Amino acid sequence: MTVDRDDRPSIARLNRTRYPGVAPAQATGSAAVRGTVARALFRRVVRDLPVSVDDGSGIHPRNRDWPRMTIIDSDAFFRRLGTSGLIGLGESFMAGEWTADDLVGVLVPFAERAGTLVPPVLQRLRPLVLPSHPAAEQNTVANTRSNISRHYDLSNELFALFLDETLTYSSAHFGTDAAATRAGRADLADAQRAKIDRLLDHADVRPGTRLLEIGTGWGELAVRAAVRGATVRSVTLSREQRAHARRRAQEAGLADRVQVDLLDYRSVDGEYDAVASVEMIEAVGMEYWPAYFNTVERLLAPGGRAAIQAITMPHKRMLASARTYTWVHKYIFPGGQIPSYDAIREAAANAGLRIDDTDAFGVHYARTLRVWRESFEANWERIAALGFDDTFRRMWTFYLAYSEAGFTSGYLDVVQLRFERGA
User: Which of 314, 327, 323, 376 has the alpha carbon at shortest distance from 107?
Assistant: First the structure.
């Protein structure tokens, strides 16, 4: 498959501006005091975790069977943690101040206890001492294109080097949980096609269906729907993805059935028999979920169906973290918010949409992420040749491992949901 080539100077600019928090941590004043507090709190937390931590003063606790976290520069690590919380944890990894023999293994116990790691009194103080969401990253119509571009327009070639041949950037479905635990890179493309087919089945896509896809990706769903005989309109805010998806439709001889528009979902018009959207709701932003589902309801024909694949988290954790600015927001997905199943159901019901089928498969996402991370590492020399630097490598290694840990621990899940619109 041909992959569109990218603008090398844009990658060079990205490497100069993308890492605002990775400069050396401050060593004096309030940063030093916060670092001392963070050191004490961190040691207290890891006492109860199945992780061996070597912070330069010994290994706590010493267990050779547990994954080991090695803190290379403990003073800088704790200053970052005290100043920026979990953002500092990721930035410290990006700066090379700590490492791990099994990064996912180290992160899973933290993910399993995400709601209890910080004492309640300190959780209440968090909004006063940690960064808040920048106004420029709220998903207004004016800001959303920039938020999307910062991730999805990085480089088509980058994504091609760790995704499978379908260029599908969402959880695959390997058939069964047992199959998922054994799957490797050779299984990924077929599992991605199976995932897409399941979603199209949920939406009852067949010959003659007028399908709207919200969030194009690189075009695999649109092409597979068109092969079924559907007429597809797909909308995206990524110029790179739009160009590639259009090319794919042309190469498949389906350009007359697939229309790809550079358009905000809120600006779509027309009437459609079905709406499909894969892991796009996470990028919408919590305050815009009502607008998202109102748009879906407005565009569906009477009796129409919507099929949405979404990452979810527990409702209480979603509420507790909704106003928290995280490392993922700062470096990977600006403006995003992972919903809970309850939040999706409520927002959809308020818009006149009813969930009538669900399919959860979080184990499959953990395996998908592992395959991506292994491919990313195996292809690093080719990725570096595109212009990406070592800080980007550590950033994306942490992102993929952090995400895998979330699904491995059960803190995160992924579901396919079918919605019906009343007559």
Answer: 327
pTM over 0.85: yes
Q: What angle do CA 23, 25, 29 make, to 5 degrees?
A: 140
On whether the CB atoms of residues 407 and 369 are closer than 8 A, the answer is yes
If we measure between CA atoms, which residue out of 15, 17, 1 comes closest to residue 386? 15
pLDDT band at 333 (very low <50, low <70, confident <90, very high): confident
Query: In the predicted model, is pLDDT for residue 359 greater than 60?
Result: yes
pLDDT-based confidence at residue 112 (cuts at 50, 70, 90): confident
- Pair 144, 215: CB distance under 8 Å: no
d(CA 293, CA 358): 17
> What is d(CA 62, CA 65) in angstroms, rounded to the nearest whole number?
9
Give 154-208 as a DSSP string.
Answer: S-HHHHHTTS-TT---S----SSHHHHHH--HHHHHHHHHHHHHHHHHHTT--TT
Hey, is 278 helix, strand or coil? strand
CB 326 within 8 A of CB 420: no
In whole angstroms, what is the distance from residue 131 CA to residue 284 CA? 21
The percent of residues above 70 in pLDDT, for the chain, comes to 83
The angle at the Cα of 309, spanning 304 to 310, to the nearest 5 degrees, equals 125
Alpha-carbon distance 410 to 423, whole Å? 37
The CB-based long-range contact list for 379-382 (8 Å cut-off, 24+ gap) reads 379/161, 379/162, 382/161
Three-state SS at 344: helix
The tokens for 239 are: 């110029």
Strands (E), 245-317: 258-262, 272-278, 300-312
Distance CA 47, CA 196 (A): 43
Edge-first strand listing for the sheet containing 210-214: 258-262, 231-236, 210-214, 272-278, 300-312, 413-421, 353-360
Cβ burial of 284 (10 Å; 0-12, 13-18, 19+) is buried
At 270, list the tokens. 């027309």
Helix spans in 252-340 (H): 289-299, 315-321, 327-331
What pLDDT score was predicted for residue 158? 92
SS3 124: helix
- As a residue count, the chain comes to 423
Task: Using the predicted structure, report yes or no on whether residue 117 has a pLDDT greater than 70.
Answer: no
